[in-house]
Write a structure and sequence with these properties.
By secondary structure, the chain is an all-alpha fold. Helices cover 77% and strands 0% of the residues.
């Protein structure tokens, strides 16, 4: 290990110590996450500036930083399947009456689909407003295409028809799905958990002693998993510090400058959708300022980690403990939103890409028959997309191939995928939280006193 790398590691450890001291002084969890975000960006910029002529030092440094950053993300990903299983099962066996479950599920899926359609329209309008044109990026095609084998991805994700994709939700081996294998493991676990929960409810009156035993077993498992969640979420500031340092130190800003117009347009679309969410909150009787003050930590981590699935533990905890939304709705909505109706990745991005390519093919994207076809493809494609980094590129490949559009533009935009994916992931998670809030009001399963109260869970106990 070189002296420079050792110094970089020491600086990183000092910043971690600062975050630890902030925790001991009971500084609010939100400010600790924000502080980690700022310190990470500053440290990454410093590394990039000092070692601009020696990238090898940056790479060797990042390898050590990844122990914290990647380690934290892996801890969160480790929790996803167990958390979905115990949360969905626990939520269902706590349901009183079957009609509420049907109403809850229908509401969640409906809101996710409606917001996805809106986000796609926003993406098209913003793309047109900025005058984005795929032909202007043709000069970058050869450079961007290197190292990006989009043909293999296309075969992997578009090889199955829509009916086949729906069948993939039913696991042939639920234990394999719990281990994360299969085409749609997350939705398979949701399906399996729902089946267990509904089946257990069927025993509630027929065999109450068996139901009670099962209830206590799941309750115990649930409490243990949530205790682990509490511990892992407490590590968020340290994970954010490492992740943002890596991002700032290793990003290719020369490519960003050339693709800046698309980048700016994408974030304008994201802001527009956040405003749409705010309107939805007002319509359903929520204060948007209170909502986003409590959602800030969740959205910050989603932004930095680029993983909807990894944000799930923090997301559900905030919905339940901070916003007063029932456990059943919070868990089901957050879990489904990991794979369905991702407004950024499967809504805005594919729509913007299509809007850029369509004029080069002589197609008017606002022609009713084409627009309806595009919306159907986007909505179907929004089912089952994994909640991991790079989802937007995959969604674009699926949409373009379904329309028989050329997919080369995806290879161009991969240069700015990390920056795009950060904003899109944040929007995806935000959509899940909005869906939980709306469904909470529709099903009358939200404690507004808790929503309006100050949220001190993380700031005082983590």
């Amino acid at each position: 290990m070189s002296l420079y790398v050792l110094v970089n590691i020491i600086i990183f450890l000092v910043l971690m110590a600062v975050l630890y001291v902030m925790k001991k002084k009971h500084i609010d969890f939100t400010f600790r996450v924000l502080g980690a975000l700022i310190m990470g960006l500053a440290l990454g910029f410093l590394l990039r500036t000092l070692y601009a002529s020696n990238i090898e030092i940056i790479n060797k440094t990042i390898i050590w930083y990844n122990i914290v950053g990647n380690g934290y993300v892996r801890l969160l990903q480790m929790l996803v399947m167990p958390l979905i299983f115990v949360s969905i099962t626990m939520a269902l066996i706590n349901i009183k009456g079957g009609s509420n479950l049907k109403k809850m599920t229908f509401s969640i899926i409906a809101v996710l689909m409606i917001t996805t359609a809106i986000s796609a329209l926003v993406g098209i309008l913003v793309s047109k407003g900025f005058g984005l044109d795929a032909s202007k990026l043709q000069s970058l095609m050869s450079d961007a295409s290197q190292g990006f084998n989009y043909e293999d991805r296309l075969k992997t994700f578009s090889g199955k028809s829509a009916p086949q994709q729906l069948l993939e939700i039913i696991p042939t081996n639920p234990f394999s799905a719990l281990a994360g294998f299969g085409v749609l493991p997350t939705l398979s676990v949701v399906f399996f958990s729902a089946l267990i929960g509904v089946s257990a409810l069927g025993l509630k009156n027929k065999k109450p002693e068996i139901f009670d035993f099962f209830f206590k077993m799941i309750q115990t498992l649930h409490d243990v998993i949530m205790q682990i969640v509490s511990f892992v979420v407490g590590l968020s500031p340290f994970g954010v510090l490492a992740l943002m340092t890596r991002f700032m130190a290793s990003s290719n800003f020369e490519s960003f400058a050339q693709l800046g117009q698309f980048l700016i347009a994408s974030y304008v679309a994201i802001i527009v959708m956040i405003l749409v969410y705010a309107v939805m909150l007002i319509i359903f009787g929520y204060n948007p300022i209170k909502f986003y003050s409590k959602a800030f930590s969740v959205l910050t981590f989603a932004f930095t980690s680029r993983t909807s699935a990894g944000t799930l533990p923090l997301n559900t905890s905030t919905l339940i403990n901070g916003m007063g939304i029932s456990e059943g709705i919070s868990n089901l909505s957050a879990s489904l939103a990991v794979n369905i109706g991702k407004n950024g990745c499967t809504g805005i991005f594919p729509a913007m890409v299509v809007a850029m390519i369509a004029p080069t093919l002589g197609i008017n994207i606002f022609e009713p028959s084409f627009l309806i076809r595009l919306m159907i493809i986007i909505l179907i494609g929004s089912f089952g997309l994994p909640g991991v980094p790079g989802g937007a590129m995959t969604a674009a490949l699926i949409t373009l191939s379904a329309l028989n559009f050329p997919v080369e533009l995806v290879a161009v935009l991969v240069a700015i995928d990390p920056i795009l994916d950060m904003g899109f992931t944040m929007l995806n998670v935000n959509d899940g939280m909005i869906t939980a809030a709306v469904t909470g009001k529709i099903c009358k399963e939200v404690d507004m006193d808790k929503f309006n109260a100050k949220y001190t869970s993380y700031s005082e106990n983590i």
